[in-house]
């Protein structure tokens, strides 16, 4: 097999995506998660000091993002550990959704 045949076979296995593209996407996704978490922490902290309460809507978005990431990973790998982590993130997301709705209704701050 020559070099071009090997390259075509590798691209076919990766659905036409280049390995460098896949790795760049993974790196970008990790950076985006890190920045999102950092921004939510900063916004929550500022809201806590300035407004006296934390808007749980932002936490709901952040936890849902993590839930979807782990759910996708679980669906691809089917590992028990990933399922447990997915459930935990899902429960955190649901609890933040409930808190956010209660905040919107004026039941809690």
How would you describe this structure in keywords?
2 domains; 109 residues; 4 helices; single chain; mainly alpha
Task: Tell me what the structure shows.
The protein is an all-alpha fold and 109 residues long. It has two domains: 1-52; 55-109, no CATH class. The protein is built from four helices and no strands. It has helices spanning 3-13, 19-50, 56-77, 80-105. The mean pLDDT is 90.
* Sequence of secondary-structure elements: HHHH
What's the overall geometry? elongated
| Distance between the first and last residues' Cα | 67 Å
Kindly estimate the percentage of residues that lie in beta strands according to DSSP: under 5%
- The counted number of beta strands is 0
Unreliable runs = none
Number of domains: 2
**Gyration radius, in Å:** 20 Å
Structural class comes to mainly alpha
Major sheet description: none
The count of helical stretches stands at 4
Portion of residues in helices?
A: over 70%
Mean pLDDT: 90
């Amino acid at each position: 097999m020559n070099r071009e045949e090997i390259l075509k076979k590798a691209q076919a296995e990766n659905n036409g995506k280049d390995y460098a593209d896949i790795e760049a996407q993974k790196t970008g996704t990790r950076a985006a998660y890190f920045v999102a978490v950092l921004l939510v922490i900063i916004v929550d902290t500022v809201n806590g000091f300035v407004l006296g309460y934390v808007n749980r809507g932002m936490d709901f978005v952040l936890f849902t993002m993590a839930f979807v990431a782990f759910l996708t990973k679980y669906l691809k790998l089917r590992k028990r550990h990933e399922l447990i982590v997915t459930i935990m993130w899902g429960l955190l997301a649901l609890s933040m959704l409930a808190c956010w709705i209660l905040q919107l209704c004026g039941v809690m701050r």
